[in-house]
Amino acid sequence: MITQCRAGTQHYSSSVTTDAVVYRDQNFFITPLKIEYPLLGRSRSTVRRTTGRHPSRGVTSMRREIANRLEVQFDSHDVLRQLHDVPPHEVYEVTIDGQRAVTKLNTGTTGKAGFEGRVMAFIGEHTSTPVPETLLVEDEFYVAAWHDDAPSPETEQDADESWARAAGGGLARLHDETAPFLGTYGAFRPDDGLGIRSHNEWHAAATEYVCSRRPTLARYGHADVVDKVIEYLDGHPDAFAGADSPVCCHGWATPEHVSVDNGEVACMIDFEHAIAAPGEYDYWRTVFPAFGAEESDARNAFRESYESVRPLPDGFERRQHHYALLNGVYYFESLYVQNQHGRKETSAIAERLDNWITEILNSLS
Predict the structure, then answer these.
(1) How far apart are CA 23 and CA 252, in angstroms?
(2) Whole-model pTM?
(3) Is the domain 2-47+151-364 a CATH 3.90.1200.10 member?
(4) In 3D, which of 217, 232, 248, 288 has the Cα closest to residue 16?
(5) pLDDT digits (tens, 9 = 90+) for 294-324
(6) Does residue 10 carry a pLDDT above 80?
(7) Percent of the chain with pLDDT over 70
(8) Which residues form the Aminoglycoside phosphotransferase domain (predicted)?
(9) Cβ contact 66:101 at 8 Å
(10) For residue 174, is it left (φ>0), alpha (ψ between -120 and 50) or beta?
């Protein structure tokens, strides 16, 4: 597997894209190893979206592209404003045939707007999770109906105990309701409920997940980061032993993407990170950025609510450090895909990430 990842990186392309890696202005810790999550810069409010930053209705190349795409499918359309502009996607508020809507488009090679639209349509059809209605999906973009409860910078909620209780149960229901459609692990393909590169074992899918990020990191001189994580996974085939069965994992179910109301999930958005993986993968992907690794009332409420719907498997706490490795490689790739920092700051963040991943590996050895 190591040789294949190193020598054949052109064969790996991520189906779990990097778009919205955001952090609170603090560090996180993984207990009991006390390994810090490196602070990667901007606060979530400035990284996540750029609502209101582009109020002009002037004709731009992207607006022209959107208009051309919408013209083919709808009788009338108007591009109103840009809501989000962080590579590899842009998001715009539009109207189509008099209906308020949102369109999301790829702006880079790692963009998967069409993939996200298909996942969201699948979730809307097969689960009780509230999502925006998908109106049109093509390879490079999708259009969804405007959802009044969708998270936004103006209405974003805190990851407090109230949010945690609603979101924990909501995430577990998403997992529970998608489990019957998935028999293997891997990059999620919502058109038929199978993994594109399906694996019977999560370890193999997790290894491929890491490998898929090597091409980007290799371009910036960090292929060794992927290689050392792959080397560890290759030498520890039992790293994920005991993980639960595959479900549709959202991949970033924090308040930036999940709004709640009256104790229930009100709307879930941004499924570009979706993957067929164990539910515990999604649990840790949410807990680390939302609550940190230290115990808290909110974190405990999230777990209690999740397990009231879908119990977590034995040993899931032990495996959190292996999920931290997956997250670390993901964060590293996102640093370059998003390109949100100057050269000096990017270099400093890359060094912190490299050291962080190395520290985790050393602690696990």
Answers:
(1) 12
(2) 0.85
(3) yes
(4) 248
(5) 899 999 999 999 999 999 999 999 999 999 9
(6) no
(7) 81
(8) 90-307
(9) no
(10) alpha
